[in-house]
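pls ignore typos typing on phone
iron/sulfur cluster + seq
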Amino acid sequence: MRDSLEKKYNFETGMYRPPSEGGSASLLVRLTRNCPWNHCTFCAMYKSEKFELRAPKDIIQDINAMHDIYLQAKKISENCGHEGQITAPSINEFMQKTPELYFHPGISMLFNWLVAGGKTVFLQDADSLIMKTNDIIQVLNHLKTSFPTIERITSYGRSRTIVRKPVADLKKIRNAGLDRIHIGLETGDAALLKKIKKGATPEDHINGGLKAMTAGFQVSEYWMPGLGGRALSNNHSKHTALVLNKINPHYIRSRPFTPRPGTLFFKKSGNDLDRQTPKEQLVEIKRMLETLDVTSKICFDHAGNHWTTPNGRLLLNQSYEGYTFPEEKEKLINRIESGIKNYS
Ligand code: SF4
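k done
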């Protein structure tokens, strides 16, 4: 009995999702395992893990398991007079009846999502669009039919993968319900992209970003202040802005570079990390923003955007919707200038 319940309610959950899909915000559905590229020198994610496509039937089985859990909790809620709403008492009773799931790695995520209204979904892991188009569509259809409360579905996607997919296929995936793609641009500088082994050129990033925009996705591009150290800072800020100007994505998100032990970057650099000071990081960001000519949301929605004011408050708003450009460009640059003055 115990084994059969564990099997019935089994579903996979991966490690990573963007902060904007965090907390109770999103249901995590694992389409693939790990990263098909896995060479970026700064990246510590998935490093010891092998990439694997998952069969659509296995993903659909995961969705069915999550849906079965939902139905059981809903039934309990109806019996308690909570009209089918997933509430703390209905979850407690469900868990008392199925203690086999106490150590299930995805159960809290699923219940948090249901309590929050079951609205947003993030498809894991690093590059879902690498799946065959019809397979993704099959999964999206099943997901939306199983949970009609879903309002937004997002995923990570690599520029090189998007470049290889026909626009017609991207449009089909968009129409099937994938709303937003999070793309790791990191930098628009050709030499730096090569140095970090991103496996994409500035042209790939431009073409991939534009293709995703043409297909109708919301596009969220991530760049890494500090990635080029002091030596490449000028080129990094300038060329990143020029690439982003060509894409004009919906979101531009700052993920300041931190050398992480265990990464290739860390091993190769030894004691010579060429790291920027907090002040130099702000100067680089300011230069990038001055060259930026977009109608995007500029976001600093990550703890790595750490700069503070003299009274200890965060210098930059860490909201997921960020600053609206061009309207708030001047205000943001002034704010960064005030931060630069405060750091010696
Ligand atoms: S593509 Fe993304 S997940 Fe893969 S190695 Fe590069 S940064 Fe890491």
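Residues 35, 37-40, 43, 45-46, 126, 158, 184 surround iron/sulfur cluster (CB under 6 Å). The mean pLDDT is 93. more later
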